[in-house]
């Protein structure tokens, strides 16, 4: 394995991966173990400057077992999804040589070397912000770099898919399609980049993290129940999504915002309709989610053409995609009018990510929030304000795929291989 008898070396890689939000949803599997979907899906990758996972992976002959720490706490790697990803990557490792450090690892050695993994999400884990997507994409990407895997990004996406379906789409930046594929072993169920983030860089994304007390049904069990009981889901997968995928690809190619927004909104609504059509029904959105939908729908209707698209995953958080910066500032003003912060919240923690939008919207203090006029489209029927119903907003944009970071960013200590 290593030259000589020195077993003190540690080899490590640190990487960063983005999260993603689907605009044509994945909901339903045809194979639970391989994680093969019943339809294609399309997502946008979110800027890792605002939402990302950072993962450091290391191998050393002195590590006694595989170990992982998530946000500083040790977690078990025993689950089938972690095991599948590690097994698939290990079997694709290639020879590695660093003469300076005296490290020489042969292809077959990767199976014997234990790994240490430390990962950190710069946003809340398991809060409906797709931490599993960024997390498994980062795990697969960083272990693949460490083990000198030569496979292309598409093949890595098929491995990340086995950690969490939506994770395969986080292997690329910009606009990404997950092709469901036909092969029973899943080899063609991979992510494909449709366009880079630079292709349509006017889009601005505002996420409303909606306060929610109850624990929702996980995506994994929710979609299993929908496949078993919802006739609407089967109709959606067979008849509706294939056409929408073609239309969405066309809308992205032409930067056609009205088509993009209409498709994203109807698809999110149909996904939630499938959840309601499940027996027993699954409720992911709440009253606040519904209020946000009607705010956007009213505005879009008044303008005569969509200004903003909305989409909701398996939870109440709204992801709002504005057609440009100017529309995003107007959107923020409306959102802060309807959903001002609770009295004890300070404004600088109420909007995170790209905070410069606050200033552009003319909002610097709580007084500016209180002075916001009611949106013109509701002037005859002013709704009540809902302070505290939104926990906070995140302003972001489209972003890049995974990258390797320098060793200074490592989460594991270079000498001990333990979390810093
Ligand atoms: N950085 C990470 N590295 C590896 N696995 C992670 C990471 N972050 C999250 N996970 C895995 O994802 C699980 C959380 O996924 P879950 O689907 O419950 O929440 P979510 O992805 O944040 O929300 P949602 O899927 O509703 O958008 C964690 O329990 C863990 O197994
Ligand atoms: C509603 C969704 O976010 C569902 C995501 O489901 P997951 O990828 O979290 O499910 P598993 O494959 O079981 O891990 C829609 C989407 O991202 O396409």
Automatic annotation (TrEMBL):
Q: Which UniProt keywords apply?
A: ATP-binding, Lipid biosynthesis, Lipid metabolism, Lyase, Nucleotide-binding, Steroid biosynthesis, Steroid metabolism, Sterol biosynthesis, Sterol metabolism
Q: Which Pfam families match?
A: MDD_C, MVD-like_N
Q: What class of enzyme is it?
A: lyase
- Which reactions is this enzyme annotated as catalysing? (R)-5-diphosphomevalonate + ATP = isopentenyl diphosphate + ADP + phosphate + CO2
Record EC number: 4.1.1.33
Q: Does the keyword Metal-binding apply?
A: no
Task: State a single Gene Ontology molecular function.
Answer: diphosphomevalonate decarboxylase activity
Q: Which ranges carry the Mvd1 C-terminal domain?
A: 205-404
Q: Which GO terms describe its biological process?
A: isopentenyl diphosphate biosynthetic process, mevalonate pathway; sterol biosynthetic process
Q: Where is the Diphosphomevalonate decarboxylase-like N-terminal domain?
A: 18-191
Q: A single GO CC term, please?
A: cytosol
InterPro entries (UniProt xref): GHMP_kinase_C_sf, Mev_decarb, Mev_diP_decarb, MVD-like_N, Mvd1_C, Ribosomal_Su5_D2-typ_SF, Ribsml_uS5_D2-typ_fold_subgr
Membership in a protein family: Belongs to the diphosphomevalonate decarboxylase family.
Primary role: Performs the first committed step in the biosynthesis of isoprene-containing compounds such as sterols and terpenoids.
The name on file for this protein is Diphosphomevalonate decarboxylase
- Origin organism is Papaver atlanticum
């Amino acid at each position: 394995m290593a030259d000589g008898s020195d077993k003190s070396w540690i080899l490590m890689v640190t990487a960063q991966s983005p999260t993603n939000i689907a605009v044509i949803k994945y909901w339903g599997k045809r194979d639970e173990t391989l994680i093969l979907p019943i339809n294609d899906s399309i997502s946008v990758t979110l800027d890792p400057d605002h939402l990302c996972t950072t993962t450091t992976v290391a191998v050393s002959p002195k590590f006694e077992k595989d170990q992982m720490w998530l946000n500083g706490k040790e977690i078990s790697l025993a689950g089938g999804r972690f095991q599948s990803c590690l097994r698939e990557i290990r079997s694709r490792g290639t020879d590695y040589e660093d003469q300076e450090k005296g490290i020489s690892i042969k292809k077959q050695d990767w199976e014997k070397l234990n790994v240490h993994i430390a990962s950190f999400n710069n946003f809340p884990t398991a809060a409906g912000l797709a931490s599993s997507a960024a997390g498994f994409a980062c795990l697969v990407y960083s272990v693949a770099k460490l083990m000198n895997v030569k496979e292309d990004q598409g093949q890595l996406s098929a491995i990340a898919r086995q950690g969490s379906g939506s994770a395969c789409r986080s292997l690329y930046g910009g606009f990404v399609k997950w092709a469901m594929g036909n092969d029973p072993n899943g080899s063609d169920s991979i992510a494909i980049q449709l366009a880079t983030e630079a292709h349509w860089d006017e889009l601005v994304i505002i996420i409303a993290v909606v306060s929610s007390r109850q624990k929702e049904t996980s995506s994994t069990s929710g979609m299993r129940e929908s496949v078993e009981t919802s006739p609407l889901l089967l109709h959606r997968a067979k008849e509706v999504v294939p056409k929408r995928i073609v239309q969405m690809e066309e809308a992205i190619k032409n930067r056609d915002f009205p088509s993009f927004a209409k498709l994203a909104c109807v698809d999110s609504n149909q996904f939630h309709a499938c959840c309601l059509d499940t027996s027993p029904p699954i409720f992911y959105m709440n009253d606040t989610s519904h209020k946000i939908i009607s705010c956007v729908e009213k505005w879009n209707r008044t303008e005569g053409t969509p200004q903003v698209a909305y989409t909701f995953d398996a939870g109440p958080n709204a992801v709002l995609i504005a057609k440009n910066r100017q529309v995003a500032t107007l959107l923020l003003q409306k959102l802060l009018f309807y959903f001002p912060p609770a009295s004890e919240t300070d404004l600088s923690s109420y909007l995170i990510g790209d905070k410069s939008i606050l200033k552009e919207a003319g909002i610097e203090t709580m007084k500016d929030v209180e002075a916001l006029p009611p949106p013109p489209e509701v002037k005859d029927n002013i709704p009540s304000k809902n302070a505290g119903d939104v926990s906070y907003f995140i302003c972001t944009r489209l972003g890049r795929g995974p990258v390797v970071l320098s060793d200074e960013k490592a989460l594991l200590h270079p000498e001990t291989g333990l979390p810093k």
